[in-house]
Amino acid sequence: MKRLITVLLILLVPPFILMGIAGMGGNGDDETDYVPRKQDPMYQDASVDHSKFEELQKDFNNAHEVTKACLSCHTERGKEVMSNAHWNWERDAHIKGRGVTYLGKKNLINNFCTGIAGSEGTCTRCHIGYGWEDKSFDFNDQSNIDCLVCHDNSGTYRKAKGAAGYPYPSIDLGFVAQSVGSPKKENCGICHFFSAGGNNVKNGALDKALLNTTKDVDVHMAKDGADMACVECHITEKHQMKGKYYGVSSMDRNRATCTNCHGARPHEDNLLNEHTIKVACQTCHIPRYAKANPTKTRWDWSTATKLDEDGKPYSIDNDEGQHEYLSIKGSFEWGQNLKPDYIWFNGTADHYLLSDEIDETPVQINTLKGKYSDEDAKIWPVKIHKGKQPYDKKYNRLVQMKLWDEEKGQGALWKDFNWALSIEKGMEYIGLPYSGDYGFISTEMTLPLSHMVSPADQSVKCEECHTRSNSRLAKLEDFYMPGRDYNAALDTMGSILIILSLIGVVIHATLRAVSASSRKKASANK
Amino acid sequence: MKKQVYLYYRFERFWHWAQAILILFLGFTGFEIHGSLDIFGFEAAVKWHNIAAWAFIVLIVFAIFWHLTTNAWKQYLPTAKNLKAQMEFYVTGIFRNTPHPTKKTILSKLNPLQRLVYLGLKVLVIPVMVVSGLFYMFYRYPQSGDIETINISGLENIALVHTLGAFLLVVFVIVHLYLITTGHTVTSNLKAMITGYEEIEEEDADEEAEEEVRKHDIPV
Ligand code: HEM
After folding, report:
1. How far apart are CA A374 and CA A310, in angstroms?
2. Which one has a higher pLDDT value, A432 or B199?
3. Long-range contacts: B55-60, Cβ < 8 Å, 24+?
4. Tens digit of pLDDT for each residue in B120-178?
5. CB contact under 8 A, B35 and A468
6. For every residue of A433-482, which 3-state class applies, written as one string?
7. Beta bridge partner(s), residue A391
8. CB pairs under 8 A between A and B
9. Is B166 in the pocket of ligand 1 (CB under 6 A)?
10. Backbone angles phi, psi at A168, to 5 degrees
11. pLDDT of amino acid B1
12. Which of A346, A350, A364, B163 is most buried by its number of CB atoms within 10 A?
C-alpha cells in the first residue's frame, strides 16, 4: 500500500510541477535563424558593376533611351514586367458572382483619392512607366517601362509631379543607370509609403519611418534588427512580386506570407500553434498600427471646393501639423498608434465597381470574404477607412470625378473647384452614364494589416481577446470564445445555486448552534 | 461501547485529498478561464487547468483500479433503507440532538444520502467533466490544412456542459464542506479522513465485518 502511494506521488507530482515550470518559460523563440541579406555572403558582392558597361556610360537624351539600354542586355525582362500588376494596374481575377474580371488601379474606385480616370497625368507618377497620360498610352511598348524607379540604388532618381511618370529633367540619367541594383526599401517606399497623397495616409503601417526605425515599430525592417528590405518577403521572380493589397486584389494566390520564413507552427507552445488555424499571425503580432506617424482614418470629400476671400484654395492644419482641411480634397481625421479592427478573412475579396448599384450604406468599397465556419478564414487585423464621396443620386452609383488637369478650364476639381463639372468630365471619360444629380454618401474600405510587426514580447496578450469586457474580438460574434463568451442563463442559474447553498448552510449552521446552546441551557437549568 | 475503528485506508485518504485539491484548483482556474475570477491571469489559468486536468485523469485511473480491486465500489450502491430517516435527520433531528440514523460500519461507511450523491458524482458529474474537458482540449476549429483532430462545428455546447458541471461541483464542495461538521463532533469526520480512524458505536456485527475484511485481505 505504501509503495502504491509512493509510486502515485512520483507519478503525479513531479510532472505536474515540471509541466508548470516548463510552461512558465513562455514562448522563448525570439531568436530566429534568419540571416539578413546584408550579412548573407550570397548577396554581398554584386556579380556585376553596371558603371563598367559602355552602354550606360553616356548622356541619355531621355528616359526611354535608358530603358532601351537596359533591355539591350536584359532582353527578356521587358515581357516579364509587362505581365505584372505594377505595369498593368489591373489583374485577371475570378470573383464569385462576377466571373473573370480585370481589376486594379486602372479602373477601381476607392475612398481616398477615389480613382485615376481622367487624372492620369498626375496619378501615374507612381506607375512604373513613362507617358501614361490618358487612354492612348501604349502598354505594349517596352521602351515605356521605367526600370529606374525600382532599380535606382543611387537615391537620386525622382519622378516629376504631373508628368505622367517621367523623371525630373534635372536628373542625371547616366549616373542613375550606372547605379542600378536590387530594389531597396527606398525604391518601394517612394510609392507605397506615400500612396493616397501623403506619408502613411492609406495603409497606416507603410510609413517612411520604416526606412530608419527600431524593433518596437517593425522587427523586420528595424535598423537595429534584421534591417530587411521589402523584397526579402515580397520575393520576386521574373518580375512577379509576391504580395497582395486587397484594395485592388481579389484572389488568394501568390501572397507574401509569414509562414514562408517562419513555418506553419512557429511557437514552442502548442496551444499557440493551434491558434494559427483560425487566427492570422498578424492578429497577435501587430497589436497596433500607425506606430510612428498618423494615418488617415476618415476622408470627407463633401466639404471640398471651399475657397478663401481671394477665390484661392486653402488648407487648415491640426495641432500636430496634419491637414484637417484642404480645398482640393475636403476634411480629414487622423489617428496614431491605433488598435486594429478585426474581421474573418479567407484571402478573397470583392470590390465595388463603378457599374454597380449601391445596395448598402456605408458603401463597401471592398469586401473581404470570410466567416467563422469558412474553413479557410482566419481572424485578421484591418484598418477600416471611412469616407464620404460623391455619388449619382438618380442612378444610385458612386461616381468618379476628374481630379487633375494641367490647365484650368478642363473641369478638373483641383483646378476649377466645380463638383458638377468634374463629375461630368470624369464619367464622360470613363464612358458611364451620369444623371447630373450628385450627392455625397458614406463609404468604407477595409485594409488588412501585415506590416509593423512588433517584437514577440509585445504581441497581443491572451486576455486582450479572452475577456468579457473590451475584448479586441468583441465584434466577431459568430463563434464561442472561452473567457469572452458565456451563456447568461446558465451563469445566472449556477450563481443562484451557489448562493442558495451558501444561504442554506448558514441557516442550518445557525439553527444547529442555537438549538445546541438552548439544550445546554436547559440541561444547566436542570 | 465506543471503539476507534480504522475506516479510511491509506490510499483512500490520499485519493480523497488529492481529488479535493485538484477539484478546488480546477474550479478556481476553470472559473478564471470562464471569466468569473481574476487570480492567475488567463494564460496561466489555461496552462494550469490543463496540467491539473491531466493529473486528475491519472488519479481517476488509479482510483477506479483501487475501487474495483478492493470491492470498495460497493460502498456506493444506492439503498432506500434509511433514506427518509437520513433526510429527516438533517431537516429536524439534528437540531434535537437525535442520534444519527445510519451507523457507520466498515462495510457501510456511507449513509444512504451520501451513497446517492457520491455515486452521482462518480458516474455522472466527474465523467461528464472529464469527457467534456477532453473534448474542449482536443477540439479544433473548422479548418483546412493538416492539423486533424476533432472537428465539430462549434465549441459552445462543449463549453456549456463543462460549465454546468463546474457549477454543480462548486455547489457540492460547499455543501460537502459543511456536512463534514455534522458528525459525532464537529471535527470527527475531518479527523477520520486525516488519520483513518474514527470512534464509532461498536456492534457485534462489526467485529465480524472486520474479520471479513482481514480475511479478504483488503489492503490497509
Ligand atoms: C479531467 C478533467 C477536466 C478537463 C480535461 C478539463 C479541461 C478543460 C479545458 C480544456 C478547458 C478550456 C480551457 C482551455 O481553452 O484550455 C476547461 C475550461 C473550464 N473548466 Fe475544465 N477540465 C476538467 C475539469 C474541471 C473541473 C473539475 C472543473 C470545476 C470544478 C472545471 C471547470 C472549468 C471551467 C469553469 C471552465 C471554463 C469553461 C468556459 O467558460 O468555457 N474543469 N476545462
Report:
1. 58
2. A432
3. B55/A12, B55/A15, B55/A16, B55/B22, B56/B19, B56/B22, B56/B23, B56/B26, B56/B130, B57/B130, B58/A11, B58/A12, B59/A8, B59/A12, B59/B15, B59/B18, B59/B19, B59/B22, B60/B126, B60/B130
4. 999 999 999 999 999 999 887 666 655 555 556 678 999 999 999 999 999 999 999 99
5. yes
6. CCCCCEEEEEEEEEEECCCCCCCHHHCCCHHHHCCCCCCCCCCCCCCCCC
7. A398, A439
8. 133
9. yes
10. -60, 140
11. 62
12. B163
The pLDDT mean for chain B works out to 88
From A349's Cα to the closest Cα of chain B, the distance in A is 19
A274 touches chain B (CB under 8 A): yes
- According to DSSP, the β-strands at A295-300 and A378-392 are parallel
Please identify among residues 367-386 of chain A the ones whose CB lies closer than 8 Å to any CB of chain B: 372-376
Cell of A383: 484598418
Q: Residue B180: is it exposed, middle or buried by C-beta count within 10 angstroms (0-12/13-18/19+)?
A: middle
Q: Which residues contact A1 (CB under 8 A, 6 or more apart)?
A: B9, B10, B11, B219, B220
Question: In angstroms, what separates the C-alpha of B212 from chain A's closest C-alpha?
Answer: 19
Smallest CA-to-CA distance from A446 within A266, A247, A283, A269 is with A247
The low-confidence residues of chain A, meaning pLDDT below 70, are 1-45
Any CB–CB contact under 8 A between A501 and chain B?
yes
Task: Tell me how crowded residue A404 is: count the other CB atoms within 10 A of its CB.
Answer: 20
Which one, of A158, A156, A312, A151, lies nearest residue A236 by Cα? A151
C-alpha closest to that of A30 among A452, A450, A454: A454
* CA-based nearest residue to A117, from A365, A398, A429: A429
Domains, chain B, in order of start with CATH, read 2-215 (1.20.950.20)
B53 lines ligand 1 (CB under 6 A): yes
Is A515 in contact with B97 (Cβ distance < 8 A)?
yes
Does residue A303 sit in helix, strand or coil? helix
Q: Is the CB of B49 under 6 A from ligand 1?
A: yes
Burial, A130: exposed, middle or buried (Cβ in 10 Å; 0-12, 13-18, 19+)? buried
Q: Which cell goes with B81?
A: 433503507
Q: Return the beta strands (E) in A327-365 as ranges.
A: 330-335, 341-345, 349-351, 363-364
* Maximal C-alpha separation, chain A: 128
Which one-letter DSSP state was computed for residue A150? H
Name the residue type at position A281.
C
The interface residues of chain A toward chain B in range 221-250, judged by CB-CB distance below 8 A, are: none
Q: How far is the CA of B30 from the centre of ligand 1 (A)?
A: 5
Q: Do B181 and A461 touch (CB under 8 A)?
A: no
Closest residue in A to B56 (Cα) is: A12
Q: What is the ipTM of this complex?
A: 0.89
Count the Cβ atoms, other than its own, within 10 Å of residue A10: 10
Answer whether B142 sits within 8 Å of A374, measured CB to CB. Answer: yes
Which of chain A's residues have a Cβ under 8 Å away from the Cβ of B57? none
Share of chain A above pLDDT 70, in %: 91
> Is the shortest distance between the CB of B50 and ligand 1 below 6 Å?
yes
